[in-house]
C-alpha cells in the first residue's frame, strides 16, 4: 500500500470549518493583534489592499518581539536596575504603541509598529490544491511555519501547518509500513543541538537567546 504523503495532494487535507482570518496591511498594529487573539489563532495572513498582494503572516510571537524591542529602546540610554519579566513588558505594549503612532518613535520601534514589516518576516509561500503534500512538507521543513492554499482567484481557502500534516499521517498510520515501529533515534528526529539555560534566567533574556 503506498505512503499517502507521496500519493496525496493538498486538496485532500480536511477543509477548515471556520473562515480564514485575514488582515489588511493598513490595520493598526494593536487592532491586528487583537483580531488574532479574539479568534484564538496564532497568526493571520496580511494583504496589501492597494496592490492586492499577500505580504506575509502576522504572528502572535511578533507581539512578544515588539514588547522586548520597545523595552530595549526605552532603556538604551538609561539601563534598568533590574531585568523585568515578560509580563511587565507586555503590560506596557498598548501605551507604547499608541505613543509611537503619535510621535513616530525611533527607527527600530517605528518599524515594529508597521504590520507590513512584521508580516514580511514570515514568508507567504502559497500553493494550490493540486500541489503534492510532499512539496508542502518540504516548505515546512525549510522553516516556513504555515503554507497558505489559494484558489484560482488567489483567495486563501486553507492553511497548512505542521500539525495539519501530523493529523493527516495519524489517520493513515496503517499505510506507513515499519516506519511507525522505528524509534525517534532511528529516524533522526530531535537530533538538533538545543540551548540550555538556568532556572534563574529572566524570561526576556531567554527569548533573546532563542
From TrEMBL:
Q: Which PROSITE patterns does the record associate with it?
A: CBS
UniProt keyword annotations, A-Z: CBS domain, Repeat
Q: Report the residue ranges that make up the CBS domain in this protein.
A: 14-74, 119-175
Signal sequence segment: none
Origin species: Cymbomonas tetramitiformis
Cited SUPFAM superfamilies: CBS-domain pair
Protein name (database record): CBS domain-containing protein
Question: Does this entry carry the keyword Repeat?
Answer: yes
- Reading the lineage from the top rank, the first entry is Eukaryota
* Membrane-spanning intervals of the chain: none
Question: Entry's InterPro entries?
Answer: AMPK_gamma/SDS23_families, CBS_dom, CBS_dom_sf
